[in-house]
Amino acid sequence: MDNSEALLQGKSRDNSSDYHKLSGILNYEIKNNEIRLNFKHASLAIRFLTADIFRVIMAHSDQKINYKSTEAVIEHNLTYDDFIFNEKDSELIIKTDNLVLKLKKENFLLEVFNKQGKLIHKDHNEYALGWKKQKVRAWKSFEQSQRFYGLGEKTGWLDKKGRIYEMWNHDTFLPHVSDTDPLYQSIPFLIAFNPKNSYGIYFDNSYKSFFDLGSEGQDYFSFWAEGGELDYYFINGPSLKEVVSKYSQITGTMPLPPKWSLGYHQSRYSYYPQAEVEQLLKTFRDKEIPCDAFHFDIHYMDQYKIYTWDEDRFPDPEAMFSKMEENGVKAVTIIDPGVKKDPEYKLYQQGMENDYFCKYLDGKVFIDKVWPGNCAFPDFTQSKVRDWWAGLQKDYTDLGVKGIWNDMNEPAAFNKSDTMDVEVMHQNDGDSGTHRRFHNLYGFLENKATFEGLKESLDNERPFVLTRAGFAGIQRYSAVWTGDNRSFWDHIKLAMPMLMNMGLSGITFCGTDVGGFTGNSNGELLTRWTQMGAFVPFFRNHCEVRAVSQEPWSFGEKFEKIIKKYIELRYKFITHIYNLFYQASKTGIPLMRPLIMEFPADRQCQNLSDQFMVGDSVLVAPVYQPDKDKRMLYLPEGKWIDFWTKEVYQGEEHLIVDAPLEKMPIFIKAGSIIPLNDKLNYIGEKEIECLELNVFLNEENNLGSYELYDDDGLSYNYENGVYNITEFKYQYTDNQIIFNIDRKEKNYQQEFKDYKMIFNNLNKDPLNIYVDGNQLSEFNYSDNRLEFKVPVVINKITIELS
Ligand code: GLC
Question: ∠6-10-13 over CA atoms, to 5°?
Fold first, then answer.
């Protein structure tokens, strides 16, 4: 490393002019869905997956094109050969149904136009694609008005413009500040946002890579990797939603999680002994604070040896789990990848005997320190190792464990580099490589093994896996939490854009340690953090070993009451949240969304980093500063209804709203329907007999709809069609409201028997109500709110208005 690199902490500016560039196109060939271009010392394949997605792979230094994808890419059969090809003097032109690509012959350069002929993407005039020894790099032009989103777990604002980002999974314990980089995950997926023509670039390269998004004000952005292929996918939107959804066609969506995992999780480093856990359980249930999971951190193990129990601390884990289960609390146990080097330890013996561990080329097993002291590290690139690991899950599920929390899987090691020596080899079933190639995939492959093992051993129950490290596509196996944050106010603020961008990068199921991990939380901070956490996809309170307790009751009654109210609120929204998870599992669209995703034309939303949407209708504006009883927020176009007071606000306005400690501002977009359920102490505690359908009416002449998915929340029976889909639709005209219920799929024996219909913001007296033609005698109307109950089997409600 030279001095300038040291100053940049490894983020070398990597001089563009040092690279070899593509020369002019010598010749080309078209075969099926691909055009192959040959250059003096390089070749390039452009493969079409759909009319909107194409893949670009470069081979340099006279190597052959390598079509092998990383593990992030799912098996798919996307292929598109319906393009029209044309050759002109200076360029080759390829037309798909949605895009036109122009390839300049003389100095290679790619331009992409949309159907209307507008230029939407362009290689940089000077550099385009290049290589320098093993490095590969691409340069792209951009306009200053463009915004950048995605890139997974990154600090900073919503818009990622103006910085260099590094993709190298890293255990970053030092305080995460607004330019700390990298953290634990690497998701080399970038979204270039433009209100009308957004596109994405997924760089399928697992080596250490970088994205420079105009860090020196230059008129191009660039991405490069320290090895491997220049292999990227161009994903046309044109909308942000379409970019995100199409990205999931390449790296997959999150499978439907067990519903309990969407409830509240309580954790700390660590709850022990067994009696403390039992007391914790009793306290939650005595106080009737909802909770669905306890996490067991490293102290449950015998000398931190994974898949063992400290018998003094936990004499009978099975009995403890079964008691928890009776009270509706699931057990999630932490697992670190390091296997203690101890010749008398079964796992270490198995690993050594079967060649499961990562080793150097000379055969020496890589050993380094983690919590248990010296450890060996399973080589998850080998399928036999993944099978072994998958098989280990049964040891825990047999005891009653329902979820695994994979930590320290960057992998972390207590040395200067914080990780494995990059010269260590991974066998990768015959296609071996160094840790330089597999580092970013290490946690990903561990999670794959864990998920598959749990799935096998849980017998038709959906597993829950939580991870710290990951790579693109991690959503297929695991939820993600953002690692070791601190009990700082700033970390509530930092979490919002980070989690929103993770959602845009495929990771719907993400969250942050509520209350803060390192340092001591306090009542006000925990209260505000819990308010936000209640609307974040993964909702877990966790803190470190030295920190003061931060369970909901830890800071006195005043705070406990509010914290409880917000955990209860999470459960009131659980049907809606589960429904959004269902949608994410189908489309890849996250439930925690930046406002720009819903209001792409609104400039105010482009870098709005401290409020978010839950789905398309709930706007949440957490308070992230102490001593505040007001908050400024922005409401985009439309009418918005204050969730608490039901007051109606006109959008496209900045507002200062009341936000005393007990109130986090929540607004509902007028026109929407939101299902809310009764308070629950845990998922499945009792049948939800009656589901509230809250209609938040807009002006008259308004339409609204909501599609509700419902299943048992636990098994895979939905894969055999055991689920319901019900569509609710209403039309509000000047003298009536017609509300239709269409039970489109009804194979699941639904829990709820009735709907409590609530029409908010109804400014006209209801005269008569007919349910499937029969007049309803009982209803309540006051304060612009109409309420009545109907059985779920009905089809149509007509409300005549004065
Ligand atoms: C790591 C994890 C943290 C955990 C601790 C002990 O720091 O990020 O969540 O509590 O290790 O296992």
Answer: 95
